[in-house]
Amino acid sequence: MENRCENCIIRQFNSLRALNKDDLKKVSDSKISRKIKKGEALFVEGQKLDGVFCVRNGVSKLSKLSANGKEQIVKLTNIGEIMGQRSVIAEDFTNLSATAINDMEVCFIPKEIISNTLNTNPNFSLEVLRHLAHDLKEADDVIVNMSQKTVKQRLAEAFIYLKKNYGEDENGFLTLTLSRDDYANIIGAATESLIRMISDFKKKGLIKTEGKKIGVVEIDRLQELVDGF
Amino acid sequence: MENRCENCIIRQFNSLRALNKDDLKKVSDSKISRKIKKGEALFVEGQKLDGVFCVRNGVSKLSKLSANGKEQIVKLTNIGEIMGQRSVIAEDFTNLSATAINDMEVCFIPKEIISNTLNTNPNFSLEVLRHLAHDLKEADDVIVNMSQKTVKQRLAEAFIYLKKNYGEDENGFLTLTLSRDDYANIIGAATESLIRMISDFKKKGLIKTEGKKIGVVEIDRLQELVDGF
DNA sequence: TCTAAAACATGATAATTGTCACTTTTTACA
DNA sequence: TGTAAAAAGTGACAATTATCATGTTTTAGA
Question: Residue A74 CA to D18 C1' — how many Å?
């Protein structure tokens, strides 16, 4: 009984906060906890989802394959986030794949519970609306960044984002460790270009590396880069 | 009395279709019709909106200025679309500017009416959710296109989109006439590059031009370009 | 712990796209 | 309807970024 939604603080960070005791009980009774290993997929592009995932722990990437076989990472998830909302709401196939970047714990909530609650609890609908609205705004920002910023600026921005969003360890390395490939797919560049740029940033003292780990050294200078010197 | 929402077919294309007679009356009583001239702004980035706009006629661009002063067009609106939903729902500043591309007729609906209806009519909330979900999916697609496709491919895609979405006149020219600048800002390229590419497409017989007007000649070959030959 | 596969890295080169400077054409409106 | 401003267009060139080839290091798992 330890894993009841009623006792889960995570829900304060997502739309489930709008649920009353009754609704919450229903969700809790029907949810299924799952562990996802690093590299495993939660769902893939084009799939029908019969529920949403609530992220208790770990980080996943939401990505899309383009015709030429390249992956574009559209978003990294945060703890507390609900995944799969869009396609459950639109009763649509998923437009993105979700893959665990590190080991994850998620709760799966069947779509019937979600739609029922949407139909009966206007507060919940409003919360979901707000979250979608937020996602949409962020997506717009990504569009602008992709088309108006150079690869170098996008990389600098990514480091700042990763530091602010996921933090760093006691030695100043980013908590979230990404492969070079993932970095390349976030900023939309060739892996080789990305690697060169990391070397460059390191040479300039903006970041430090230790194997896969990367640490932000001069966040202000990175920000200057983003703003265009 | 001719301009009552009750008699407006446009609403079948947007979330207002979920309104019952009562709700619709309230909307209709409080809405204000407005004409917007080509080039005029409906709202600008960073503004607080106290309502949404329902597009009766004309097309507008939703765009964002980047730090370097360049404009990125994120979306073109369609007839029937509701604009400003996101920021009214999130009770947030607009993240985009809306500018009329040709003369427009819009209805302004005060935000109180919208929020009230959201609070009381779950069907309306669901409809709005579906529309936001759709917008979000489209935004994801744009992100992938921006980062994975070449400027040439994005231009080819834009022509196909404009033809399918806004149609063409009796002479085979696109109904929606955009400036070269707007084209450049849609596909995220320098205006000069865009102009060169248009010349190139024309030389290859893919499109035809007559002043500002552009006509799609070989849609299949444009599609081949998009798909990567 | 050995080994193949995956990830990381670097050089050389090419393709794409942007920038700057300028001319020509079109458009708006005084 | 004349004219200034805006938009369209072109050339030369530079910067950015991708591609290909190849070598090195790291990692996972038999």
Answer: 21
Contacts of A113 (CB under 8 A, 6+ apart): A26, A27, A30, A51
The answer to whether the CB of B93 falls within 8 A of the CB of B46 is: yes
E strands of chain A, at which residues?
32-36, 41-43, 51-57, 60-65, 71-76, 82-83, 97-100, 104-110, 207-210, 213-216
| Chain A residue whose CA is closest to B188 | A147
User: What's chain B's Rg over C-alpha atoms?
Assistant: 19
Distance A210 CA to D28 C1' (A): 20
**Nearest CA-CA partner of A132 in A15, A51, A10:** A15
* Pairwise CB contact (< 8 Å): A137 & B95: yes
Summarised one tens digit per residue, pLDDT across range A81-100 is: 999 999 999 999 999 999 99
Q: Is the pLDDT of residue A1 over 70?
A: no
User: Is the Cβ pair B147, A188 closer than 8 Å?
Assistant: yes
Confidence of residue B2 (pLDDT cuts 50, 70, 90): low
* Average pLDDT, integer, range A182-206: 97
Pick from A142, A131, A19, A125: nearest CA to A80 = A131
H or E stretch including A4?
none
Quote ipTM for the complex. Answer: 0.94
C-beta of residue B126 within 8 angstroms of C-beta of residue B18: yes
Beta strands in B49-184 (DSSP E): 51-57, 60-65, 71-76, 82-83, 97-100, 104-110
- Residue A157 — φ and ψ, nearest 5°? -60, -40
For chain B, the average pLDDT equals 95
Largest CA distance in chain A: 58
| Strand (E) or helix (H) holding B214 | strand B213-216
With beta carbons less than 8 A apart as the criterion, state whether B207 and B216 touch.
yes
Is the Cβ–Cβ distance between A54 and A11 less than 8 Å? yes
Q: How far, in Å, is the CA of B62 from the C1' of nucleotide C23?
A: 33
Nearest nucleotide relative to B153: CA against C1': C16
Minimal Cα distance from A227: which residue of B?
B67
* Helix A151-166 vs helix A180-187: crossing angle, to nearest 10: 110
Q: How far from the centroid of its chain's Cα atoms is residue A131's Cα? A: 13
- Laid out side by side, the sheet with B32-36 consists of B32-36, B104-110, B51-57, B82-83
Contact B90, A134 (CB under 8 A): yes
Query: Mean pLDDT, to the nearest integer, of A33-54?
Result: 95
CA distance B89 to chain A (A): 6
* pLDDT tens digit sequence for B153-181: 999 999 999 999 999 999 999 999 999 99
